[in-house]
Design goal:
- Chain A: This is ABC transporter ATP-binding protein.
- Chain A: It is a peripheral membrane protein.
- Chain A: Belongs to the ABC transporter superfamily.
- Chain A: It is found in: Cell inner membrane.
- The complex is a heterodimer of chains A (269) and B (246).
- Chain A has 269 residues and is an alpha/beta fold.
- Chain A is built from eleven helices and ten strands.
- In chain A, the strands form two sheets. In chain A, strands 6-7-8-3-9-10 form a six-stranded mixed beta sheet, sandwiched between helices.
- In chain A, helix 4 packs across helix 5 and helix 4 runs parallel beside helix 7.
- Chain A is globular, with a radius of gyration of 19 Å.
- Helix content of chain B is 36%, strand content 25%.
- Chain B has a six-stranded mixed beta sheet, sandwiched between helices. Chain B has a four-stranded antiparallel beta sheet with strand order 2-1-4-5, with helices on one face.
- In chain B, strand 7, helix 6 and strand 8 form a beta-alpha-beta unit.
- Chain B is α/β, with parallel strands linked by helices and 246 residues long.
- Classes of the chains: A alpha/beta (269), B alpha/beta (246).
- The interface between A and B is large, with 37 and 34 residues.
């Protein structure tokens, strides 16, 4: 199989408004694709559509196949199976993505034991705990045995995002969708989380759909990019081409703006 | 113009937010204050605006102490110092027409003159058409709303504008425009621009103060600090900013 995710002619509408229009792209196993867009571009909706999480009020047309299975119109039972095995998502805001009342260990334990059940194993007690600790170590969290028993508010924002990544990894997905995963983080923390994502995607051979408005962030992690504007893909290609020699005027505007800040950092005023 | 000496602020005994913060802002300066979350930058801005009182140290403006409890001073201070905040969606009253939003400082400070004409001039300066006056905030984009917030800040001709993450909520293509607008405005007033975004501050500000965990770790000319950051934290901050591919 050469494509893991295949999006063809995806159109999303609500109340007569078109939010995403005739979008097509594919992601091969292990490939890293960046979806670039400003607010209202439809980038997050695309992620929702791919993972079968679209709000009921939004109508999807076209086709999204994930590991050969059509996502659009699929019953919840099928989507439940896809989510976790084929796909997992890390969202922007780690504080709202985690249950505030549940200890970190248990939050990671739920998807973990679910995956094991799916594979025909029942994991509990010490065996489960040691796998959770293993995941916390994998996302390079310091003092995993403390974090295991902590609540989300007792750890920092960067640590929470690592926990969210650990939860996504617990499922061993073939495709990880990261929707603005570092936007809410400080720049020094962002650098660490990007490095971690980069290493994990390589190590586990996952494909990555990285969604962000931030061009240099996308450039640091994606090999191929798609630029969305008001629900339409205006340009797509290798990151090194699109972000260095953009063809579409809109991409040119974005690249020019990003370079202005970049140049200011390099040269001072 | 603004002298900050040995400023200290905390909550209770354990939680110190700012410690021994000292710097000065010359008239006409264009100063950036950079810090990550927890650096104390927002608290510092609240103290500068006179919204909170420091627990130690002093802030003086043109030789007078900034004291939130001194109502006479605060009235004069409001006339001279205005602010622009991060979120253009929550900082404008949704029920008020743009004319009234921008005219509000003129009315509340009882500034004499033709207010309508002053509002029109402020709109022109931020690059909006006079027809914006009769419209409501929801009829504008995020970038346009931030222009309205800036027009409100400059309409009473303050000596100084304090901006708190004023471009952080904006899209990249809009952000660069608003940075350019601030840059143009900074020619005729004193600007203190607080942000977590080193790139924005590098593009806008001539001088920079770097805050880490409530303390100033480095301050000076932006170009010099960017070229040769002295403090390990500044070095780490600068190295963490992702760059465009060459």
């Amino acid at each position: 199989m050469t494509t893991h995710l295949d999006v063809r002619g995806l159109t999303l509408t609500t109340q007569g408004r078109t939010l995403v229009s005739n979008l097509s792209f594919a992601i091969a196993p292990g490939e890293r694709v960046g979806l670039i867009g400003e607010s209202g571009s439809g980038k997050s909706l695309t992620a929702m559509a791919v993972s079968g999480l679209l709000p009921a009020a939004i109508r999807a047309q076209g086709s999204i196949t994930l590991a050969g299975q059509e996502v659009i119109g699929a019953p919840g039972r099928v989507l439940d199976r896809l989510r976790g095995t084929e796909i997992a998502i890390v969202f922007q805001e780690p504080l709202t993505a985690l249950d505030p009342l549940m200890r970190i260990g248990r939050q990671i334990g739920i998807p973990l034991s679910r995956r094991h059940r799916r594979d025909g194993r029942d994991l509990s007690g010490r065996a489960l705990e040691s796998e959770i600790l293993g995941l916390l170590e994998k996302v390079r969290l310091p003092d995993p045995s403390r974090i295991l028993r902590a609540h989300p508010w007792e750890i920092s924002g960067g640590q929470r995002q690592r926990v969210a990544i650990a939860m996504a990894l617990a499922c061993r997905p073939k495709l990880l969708i990261a929707d603005e995963p570092t936007t809410a983080l400080d720049v020094t923390t962002q650098a660490e989380v990007l490095k971690l994502l980069d290493a994990l995607v390589k190590e586990l051979g996952m494909a990555l759909l990285f969604i962000s408005h931030d061009l240099p962030v996308v450039a640091s992690i994606a090999e191929r990019v798609i630029v969305l504007r008001s629900g339409e893909a205006v340009e797509a290609g290798p990151a090194g081409e699109v972000l260095v020699q953009p063809r579409h005027p809109y991409t040119q505007t974005l690249v020019e703006a990003a370079r202005a800040f970049d140049d200011a950092l390099s040269g001072g005023r | 113009m603004l002298e900050i000496a040995n400023l200290r602020f905390g909550y209770g005994r354990e939680k110190t937010v700012l410690e021994d913060v000292s710097f000065s802002v010359r008239a006409g300066a264009n100063l950036g204050i950079v810090g990550e979350s927890g650096s104390g930058k927002t608290t510092l801005l609240r103290l500068l605006l006179g919204l909170s009182r420091p627990q130690g140290g002093t802030i003086s403006f043109d030789g007078e102490t900034v004291d939130a409890a001194d109502r006479g001073f605060m009235r004069r201070y409001r006339r001279k110092v205005q602010a622009v905040f991060q979120d253009p969606y929550s900082s404008l009253d949704p029920r008020q027409k743009v004319r009234d939003i921008i005219g509000e400082p003129l009315a509340s400070l009882s500034i004499p003159g033709d207010h309508r004409q002053m509002v029109a001039a402020a709109l022109d300066e931020v690059g909006l058409d006079e027809s914006a006056m009769e419209r409501l905030p929801h009829q504008f984009s995020g970038g346009q709303r931030q222009r309205i917030a800036i027009a409100r800040a400059i309409v009473a001709r303050p000596k100084m504008v304090l901006a708190d993450e004023a471009v952080s909520a904006l899209d990249l293509s809009t952000r660069i425009r608003i940075v350019e607008l601030f840059k143009a405005l900074s020619e005729s007033l004193t600007l203190v621009f607080v942000s977590h975004d080193l790139g924005v501050v590098a593009a806008l500000c001539e001088e920079i103060v770097i805050l880490e965990a409530g303390r100033i770790v480095e301050q000076g000319r932006t170009s010099e600090i960017l070229r040769a950051p002295a403090h390990p934290y500044t070095q780490r901050l600068l190295a963490s900013v992702p760059r465009m591919p060459a």
